[in-house]
């Protein structure tokens, strides 16, 4: 894979010699974006089941969890469904039952969709997995609050990102009230300003993935190492000498935990840059797929003190992160979390995804079996027709004789 050189100001070496100048140059560093096909493929691998999940969500959010097919057809653009609903149903059997009903008492019957028994079984499995992993979900939510500037995060924003972290749909109305020792909900979500506050600080949660990794290495080897980022580009990639030197000096700066108070740090300082990278690393580590769309991260600029140009961090530190443009959406990906296009460490909440993919696979196998049966029946009919035509031809030949 070709990897062009980073673009960086020619006077970088001079700036690096001066702490003050070096600090001022951080935001001006320019790095050319490079495509990573394997990490793009990781996003592409999830495309089909995510499409199905959007359609399922649209139906389940309806009153009574049923919807006229023609209403769903009108929403295709909003849910980004590229094919007609009927085609989608044929390609993904087993998700919905199709039946006739009336929209109004005296209207003509029309086609409706409702969750199939198979889909409802999956929804029960989803509940079971969520309940089993409630301590993990509570820890994740505490961590998001503990990293924030005032230990407070917008409740509406949390609802918006629940899928990224594996939070259940009822996180604010069910899970949060169950844990008053950790959370306080202020205001009503969806009805103006509403916030989730951290009630108490749990020191066991205040360790980042990087700090936990350093502690684990000490337990295994007996050698205490300094918490540090993994910085590694894929095989075949390279960067210019000037950028390697800048990275070396930056990596030598002390690691700043995202759970430490950063109110005293200047927004333009290199220490704040180190802390910001740490926050992004931890957010991606807490996410289900170790990747989050950049626009979603941008919603939390106030809570986590991100600058307006925060997305440049992902290209400037391209040995830690990858900025994917797959699907026309910028997505920040944690490089160390992937081997080729596969996640290395699996979040327990990912079991929900695998159950859903299994549900889809059953439907696809069902469709394949039906198509195979149809082809076999057509083949038998053609063979029988050929035999009849042959017998008829022989009979006519005998009559002529």
TrEMBL record:
Domain of life: Eukaryota
Name listed for the protein in its UniProt record: PORR domain-containing protein
InterPro entries hit by this protein: PORR_domain, PORR_fam
UniProt domain PORR: residue ranges: 35-364
Organism: Ilex paraguariensis (yerba mate)
A Pfam family this chain is assigned to: PORR
């Amino acid at each position: 894979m070709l990897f062009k050189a980073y673009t960086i100001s020619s006077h970088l070496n001079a700036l690096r010699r001066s702490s003050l100048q070096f600090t001022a140059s951080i935001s001006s560093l320019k790095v050319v974006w490079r495509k990573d096909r394997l990490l793009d493929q990781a996003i592409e691998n999830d495309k089909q089941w995510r499409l199905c999940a959007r359609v399922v969500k649209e139906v389940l959010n309806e009153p009574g969890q049923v919807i006229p097919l023609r209403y769903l057809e009108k929403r295709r653009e909003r849910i980004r469904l590229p094919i007609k609903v009927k085609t989608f149903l044929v390609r993904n059997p087993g998700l919905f039952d199709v039946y006739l009903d009336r929209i109004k008492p005296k209207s003509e019957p029309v086609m409706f969709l409702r969750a199939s028994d198979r889909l409802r079984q999956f929804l029960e499995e989803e509940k079971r997995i969520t309940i089993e992993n409630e301590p993990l979900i509570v820890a994740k939510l505490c961590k998001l609050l503990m990293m924030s500037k005032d230990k407070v995060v917008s409740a509406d924003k949390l609802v918006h990102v629940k899928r990224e972290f594996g939070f259940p749909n009822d996180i604010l109305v069910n899970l949060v009230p169950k844990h008053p020792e950790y959370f306080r909900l202020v205001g009503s979500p969806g009805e103006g300003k509403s916030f989730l506050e951290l009630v108490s600080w749990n020191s066991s949660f205040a360790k980042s993935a990087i700090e936990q990794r350093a502690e684990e290495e000490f337990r295994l080897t007996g050698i205490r190492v300094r918490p540090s980022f993994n910085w590694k580009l894929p095989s075949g990639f390279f960067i210019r000498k000037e950028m390697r030197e800048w990275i070396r000096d930056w990596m030598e700066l002390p690691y700043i935990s995202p759970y430490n108070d950063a109110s005293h740090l200047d927004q333009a300082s290199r220490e704040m840059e180190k802390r910001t990278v740490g926050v992004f690393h931890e957010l991606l580590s807490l996410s289900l797929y170790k990747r989050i769309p950049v626009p979603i991260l941008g919603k939390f600029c106030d809570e986590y003190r991100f600058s307006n140009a925060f997305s440049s961090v992902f290209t400037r530190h391209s040995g830690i992160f990858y900025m994917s443009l797959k699907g026309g959406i910028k997505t920040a990906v944690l490089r160390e979390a992937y081997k080729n296009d596969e996640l290395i460490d699996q979040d327990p909440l990912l079991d929900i995804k695998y159950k859903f993919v299994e549900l889809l696979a059953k439907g696809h196998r069902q469709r394949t079996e039906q198509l195979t049966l149809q082809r076999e029946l057509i083949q038998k009919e053609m063979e029988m027709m050929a035999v009849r035509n042959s017998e008829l031809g022989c009979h006519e030949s005998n009559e002529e004789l």
